[in-house]
Amino acid sequence: MSLLELKGVTKEYSRGRVSVKALRGIDLSIEPGEFLSIAGPSGSGKSTLLNLVGCLDVPTSGSIILDGEPLEKLNPQELALVRREKVGFIFQTFNLIPVLTAFENVELPLVLLKEDPKTIKDKVMKILEAVGIADLADRRPQDMSGGQQQRVAIARALVKEPKYVLADEPTANLDSENGKAVLEIMREMNERLGTTFIFSTHDQMVMDFAKRLVRLKDGQIISDERR
Amino acid sequence: MGNFKYYLTLAARNLWRQRRRTILTFLAVSLGLASFLVADSLMKGLDKQSIDNLITLETGELRLTAPGYIDIKEEDPLKKLLPKDQKLLALLAEDSEIAGLAPRLSFPVRVGNGWDEYPQEAVGIDPVKDTEVFKVKDYLVEGRWPEAGYEVLISRDTAKILELGIGDYLLMTTRTKSGAFQAVDMEIVGIVNTVNPNTNNQVFLPLAAAQEIVGVPDFLSQVDLRLAAGVDAREKAASLKEKIAGAGFQVETQPWQEMAEEFLQISKTKNAFIGIFLMMILLIATVGIVNSILLATIERTREIGVLKAMGMTEGNIVRLFLVEAALIGLLGSGAGLAIALAGEYYMVNVGLDMTEIIGNLDVGYPITGLIKGAWNPGTMVGGFFFCLLVCVLAGILPARYGAKKEPIEALRRV
Lengths: 227, 414
Ligand SMILES: Nc1ncnc2c1ncn2[C@@H]1O[C@H](COP(=O)(O)OP(=O)(O)OP(=O)(O)O)[C@@H](O)[C@H]1O
Ligand SMILES: [Mg+2]
Description:
The complex is a heterodimer.
Chain A (H helix, E strand, L loop, with lengths): L3 E12 L2 E13 L4 E5 L6 H8 L7 E6 L2 E2 L5 H11 E4 L11 H11 L4 H14 L15 H13 L5 E5 L7 H18 L2 E6 L2 H6 L2 E6 L2 E7 L1
Parallel strand pairs in A: 3-8, 3-9, 6-7, 7-8
Antiparallel strand pairs in A: 1-2, 1-4, 4-5, 9-10
Helix pairs in contact in A: 3-4, 3-5, 4-5, 5-6
Chain B lengths: L1 H16 L1 H41 L2 E4 L3 H4 L9 E2 L2 H9 L3 E15 L4 E9 L4 H4 L6 E4 L7 E5 H7 L6 E7 L5 E12 L9 E5 H8 L4 E2 L1 E6 L5 H14 L5 E4 H4 L1 H39 L1 H9 L4 H36 L2 E2 L1 H4 L11 E2 L5 H27 L3 H6 L2
Parallel strand pairs in B: 4-9, 6-8
Antiparallel strand pairs in B: 1-11, 1-12, 2-10, 3-4, 3-7, 3-11, 5-8, 7-8, 13-14
Helix pairs in contact in B: 1-2, 1-12, 2-10, 2-12, 2-14, 10-12, 10-14, 12-14
Magnesium ion (MG) binds next to helix 1 of chain A.
């Protein structure tokens, strides 16, 4: 069974009289363990697609099936619980909680899952080590570089061992060296833990990392290649 | 529980991040609560003092009169009198629950200096026993207490108006029990200025002289009682009446609460005033908290988006902001309580000198001069929790507003 299955998904934003068709009929299946990049020029609908897959928004028409369950049947509360249990997010601008330390930021998903403190501590330290910033556990985001912050964000996304991680242009705010390092960590996690990664980009270097590349243009898939 | 600790950490740090705003709200809440508590303490003190003054200068704790006296007092107080019976007085004196008894005879008079005259109430007192119940003597400002014969004690106000002093004669006119016109010259031996404005309209003379002037030897208007500590005036009024009836006398007993009815009415208006005060803190705290939380949700829109993406539900977000509101409420109420404790300590021990502010104005209270506060532990506890509750409730609306933000909209904002 596919992890995710998109069938004829469209998304239309309407702002007053103007309406924008951000996605025009997407059919896509994503299998567990994939390392997939969604590429395309600005405005092609990459973020829109990730938001839909991440249960942050609902499609205008069409259906998204996660683990065999259609998402359109769920209310906002239920969608929040799906995100809590199954989805990890990595953002372009890191989006760590500024008042919390690296440790506390990473801890958040586990706290929401009500895991016990001891398990939380073990899991957080383990993942911080895996992304190579265990020594920064007590630092606040403001005292970390962009690359370090994004590693914390990766750790936060992975700590609960989600079914899949969505990353919207995760390297766009990093220099190429840090960007590459972050991608390597992501791929390593994909290989080690089998976590599915879906990330968007318009950077060729990032596309080269992907094991599957889906290209979008004007809200439609124009190519889908595995390598 | 671990969950709650996490929320608490997050809330506390966020409050600290906006400490300037937090402190402002905190101050509003704490000063609001503190001023309410201190005002209430003063009101309670005022009440206590007023009642005290009423009892020790005017009514005593319990009054014995002839049956029906209360109803005719205003028109013709000499119509229904109490016999000055030694057996009755002995019965009262033996009662261990009675700490003092003061026989009195009062009637309306006009007092003058031969030119001007004013209506006043003449009060015949037992020069010795009266002080067992009343404290009028403590407020002598000049001269001495009337002891015997046609001696009279007048208030400083009366002395001023009539331009009379110690050693001068007060012309007192009245009607005897039989209705005959009676005019006597009374020697002014003392001038008194009490904190109960009502005594300003009274003149005090020895009981024997009073009885002679109105022609009722061996009769009294009333016997005023002071009760032993801890004796309830209402209960005693009932039991004493029965006891006296058992001894063959018909009397009416009136506890001070009944005599002070009018005053206690004023006390109720004052409670309304306290209510308004309470509404004011409610408003201040509400505005402070709503402002704090609303601004926080706006500033942290993006953060809300992130938290929602992590799987926080609307309920979780509401809870997060409510913890913040509760924290401010807790700190604010706590500090308010501390400030109130200090303020009340001052009010109870030092007090507020009102002479500067209102002079000796008759404001409907049997009180003038120094107002002292009274401790109000009940109001403190109630006020603390009320304030805390208001803060949390005030947080609900802005918290829900913040929690309703759509995650993608929240995340789009940079
Ligand atoms: N909330 C919205 N309201 C209105 N229009 C929107 C909204 N979000 C996206 N759009 C529009 O939908 C289209 C697709 O946007 P989307 O953000 O998905 O593109 P993208 O591929 O992520 O672009 P970028 O590379 O610039 O991030 C664009 O035309 C965009 O203007
Ligand atoms: Mg985008």
